[in-house]
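Handout, section B. The chain below has 140 residues.
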Amino acid sequence: MLLIDEIMSQDDTLIRTRTTLTEANPFFQPGRGIPSYITFEIMAQSISAYDGAVRRASGESPAIGFLIGCRKFKTSCNWLQPGTILETEAISLLADGEMRSFDCTMKTSSGSDVAMGIINVFRPDDPDAFLAQVSTRNAS
């Protein structure tokens, strides 16, 4: 499921993405629109795009990451309507080993606030070893 349409800009500390909401969105509900909690997934996908761009710039392959938490997430509405253009900004606050934290904000293309939150992610240096370790723990 890809919810981001475009990377507007990206540098060493931030990414800006754009998403146009349509009735083709997998979360669209006729008569209501798209639930605003979907903005959280759009923010997470923006962070993933940022990580992929940073890794590509350093000659690395894409890597799996895990969403581990969020603080201060809030939305300004319950539903979003098709035709709404969302612009997301994710600013890297922390990059400490395998842990990352991002300050995310989302506005409409006209500048109205839609959502915000601090999202924490974990990107293991060796995803295969990490998943094998988790699998072994869960099998016990």
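Note. The helical segments are 38-57, 127-139. Compare this with the example in section A.
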